[in-house]
Design a protein that fits this description.
Elements lengths: L1 H11 L16 H16 L3 H24 L4 H22 L2 H11 L3 H6 L14
Helix pairs in contact: 1-4, 2-3, 3-4
Length: 133
């Protein structure tokens, strides 16, 4: 999961995060999407209908990321480009399904605003960064 976190943070959010990534994520797209949606529910205060939509958005993105990683495994640059587009598309879908307040919080968390990250730390697993996509 950590290697996916690194790729996603760089391309989804367009910001550099420092990660010590060494192990490849072997969990399923469903498990990763569920973990991320659970964190987002806690941090953003998603209601039940939003949880369902965000889960579907996250799952679709993780499935596509896995497909791209397998399809272009011998071409890391192409993987990065394709995954970057997946992340941009995911953000558009999220923005269209979150309230303005939720979207603003999401952006702050994804940009690594330390004070907000500290406040919402209890919402994440110990090894998960904000929106550890």
């Amino acid at each position: 999961m950590k290697s996916y976190l690194f790729v996603v943070f760089i391309f989804l959010f367009g910001h550099n995060y420092s990660h010590a990534q060494s192990s490849k994520d072997t969990s399923s797209p469903v498990a990763r999407a569920t973990d991320l949606t659970t964190s987002m529910t806690c941090e953003l205060g998603l209601d039940e209908p939003q949880q369902d939509v965000v889960q579907a958005i996250n799952l679709e993105a993780y499935q596509e990321i896995d497909r791209v990683a397998k399809t272009y495994a011998s071409n890391p640059k192409r993987v990065d480009e394709e995954q970057g587009q997946i992340e941009k598309d995911r953000n558009i879908k999220l923005k269209n399904n979150l309230s303005p307040r939720q979207w603003a919080t999401y952006e702050k968390l994804s940009n690594g605003q330390s004070s907000l990250l500290n406040l919402t730390k209890a919402c994440r697993k110990p090894d998960q960064d904000a929106y550890g996509f």
